[in-house]
Design a protein that fits this description.
alpha+beta; 3 domains; repeat; elongated; PRD domain-containing protein; PTS-regulatory domain, PRD; 11 helices; Transcription Regulation, Sacy, Chain A; five-stranded antiparallel β-sheet
Length: about 280
């Protein structure tokens, strides 16, 4: 079997290597980088884990990040990301190696300094992205088990967004922005429904799901059709909720910078009226 050539030693346990089959790879193994120099040859079996960063930009960012991160965390994060990839139905965007590792390293540093961040849309994240949330719970649990530091439940939500970003191949800023938009829409709804919202109800869960897919439809430019007759009926029968739905679509238009088809107001009205009826009981 052909041997790998060391391209760069990042630390004692992580190297960048030139693999005869895969090209440039990140190789991880206990002591794999100790005493190594550039162009040293090494048996592939010396790497306990190995992954490929095909993007030159991701390679450079990862190389810059690793010297700033504890070696134990690097091992844990790569194990976590491998598990996420194995459990995901879609291939992960390789930027997760940089983004999630950097995020967790910063979170651990904040905790050491006694600085805690509250996640304002934790519940919404759990409801909207249940599979990603479950994977995030695994990641946070693994870190606590291996490093002895509890990140707390708020951090699970942040990690879930990173996982969703990698699975859907969307920038984390966009994913975070959409979650924040949903949270703000929910706040507006709660202000306009007497008695507030029962956030543990099935109807509330349905509303969140509808908002998520409505935003995704808008971003795709996907047209939603309904008849003028239906819109007139809803506006006449449920004027308060129809007006609220219209306000919500205008908020979506402004935040997303994209037009929202009129039919979205009709479908939102149905969800809002169901919630209003339940909360009034």
């Amino acid at each position: 079997m052909k041997r790998m050539l060391v391209s760069k030693v990042l630390n004692n346990n992580v190297i960048i290597a030139d693999d005869p089959q895969y090209g440039e790879v990140v190789a991880i193994g206990k002591g794999i980088g100790f005493g190594r120099a550039e162009r040293d040859s090494i048996e592939p079996e010396a790497a306990e884990k190995m992954f490929i960063l095909r993007s030159r930009r991701e390679q450079e960012q990862y190389k810059q990040l690793l010297p700033q991160v504890d070696e134990k965390l690097i091992e844990v994060m790569n194990e976590a990301i491998q598990t996420i990839g194995a459990r995901s139905a879609s291939p992960l965007n390789e930027h997760i190696h940089v983004a999630l590792t950097d995020h967790i390293a910063f979170a651990l540093k904040r905790i050491e300094q006694g600085i805690m961040f509250q996640n304002p849309f934790l519940y919404e994240t759990k409801e909207i992205y249940p599979e990603e949330y479950e994977l995030a719970e695994y990641v946070v649990g693994l870190i606590e088990d291996r490093l002895g530091t509890s990140l707390g439940p708020d951090e699970v939500g942040f990690v879930a967004l990173h996982i969703h970003s990698a699975i859907t191949n969307r920038p984390i800023g966009e994913v975070r922005g959409h979650s924040e938009l949903i949270s703000d829409l929910v706040d507006l709804i709660e202000q306009n429904i007497e008695g507030g919202l029962n956030r543990g109800s099935l109807d509330y869960s349905r509303l969140l799901t509808h908002l998520r897919f409505a935003i995704e439809r808008v971003c795709r430019g996907e047209e939603v059709r309904s008849t003028n007759r239906l819109e007139e009926l809803l506006a006449r029968e449920y004027p308060e909720m129809y007006s609220l739905a219209w306000k919500l679509t205008k908020v979506m238009e402004k935040r997303l910078g994209l037009p929202v088809y009129k039919a979205e107001s009709s479908y939102l009205t149905v969800h809002l009226q169901r919630l209003a009826d339940k909360e009034a009981l």
